[in-house]
Amino acid sequence: MKPSVILYKALPDDLLARLEDHFTVTRVKNLSPETVAQHAEAFAQAEGLLGSSEKVDQALLDNMPALRASSTISVGYDNFDVDALSARHIALMHTPTVLTETVADTLMALVLTTARRVVEVAERVKNGEWTKSIGPDWFGSDVHHKTLGIVGMGRIGLALAQRAHFGFGMPILYNARSHHQQAEERFNARYCDLDTLLKEADFVCVVLPLTAETHHLFNADKLALMKPSAILINAGRGPVVDEAALIAALQAGKIRAAGLDVFEQEPLPVDSPLLKMPNVVALPHIGSATHETRYNMAACAVDNLIDALNGKTDNNCVNPQAVNK
Length: 325
Ligand code: GLV
Prior knowledge:
Elements (H helix, E strand, L loop, with lengths): L3 E4 L5 H10 L1 E4 L5 H6 L1 H6 L2 E4 L6 H5 L6 E4 L9 H6 L3 E3 L6 H16 L2 H9 L21 E4 L3 H14 L3 E4 L5 H7 L2 E2 L2 H7 L2 E4 L13 H5 L6 E4 L8 H9 L5 E4 L19 E3 L8 H19 L10 H4 L2
Parallel strand pairs: 1-2, 1-3, 3-4, 4-5, 6-7, 6-9, 7-8, 9-10, 10-11, 11-12
Helix pairs in contact: 1-13, 6-8, 8-9
The structure holds glyoxylic acid (GLV).
């Protein structure tokens, strides 16, 4: 008999067929207590779980005693209680490689749109304000040859550094848990402590996962270190930046602009002061959201679940030690 799995995200037809070749699939719309109660037997029997953007915590796991592997269609896994999964020897699989280049493109897009005020001036054109040759009140600031600070030098940070170095001639500063030899050798990136990076960078790009350590790392004190001409870009996780402190810094003109793909609360509440600021580009968490990359992520997550339920956790597994015990 095929193992049972719960699918809580829509998949392209061919990937659903691949999943169904291996497993008996129960499709559910989310992981809310109501949904779990409605499909209690399927949750109780499921050995696998596949989807994204839902909380997987103790309470859910208590309803899934047979679970052996959970596969998320994302690189980030801050919505999973990893300790609880590991304590039960449940593998947590994710998709760390397939989205790297696309997210780096999103970061570069935020650098360009904030510096050159692309969204703001395009809106002004649509509003009929382009009635004569433009003056300095439409000007932005240069991107090429400005200093890019990257906080978090993982795969995505490295792909951003590549674009900035080769494409835009930007000197690169970075801060990470340890030195990154490849970044230094290939892109001439200079390691520095976070405060130095914040003081020197023209663009501060945050590419950090959300952990207890990174929560509100960018608070009022840190933002105060940035140059008034500098721009903050966040495409990691919203709560890494203290949003109230960021709003205050923007309102007081302490930094020039912000490009944000992630927020403390998503979707961003429509009454957020950020949406009133012309110097803020707010995106709906589109980091990896291209047709190609979202397909590749879903395919990777399906394969990860097949692998994990076959006992293969050497690739894309967050907690291999806990599983292989
Ligand atoms: C996107 O934010 C992801 O974690 O894949």
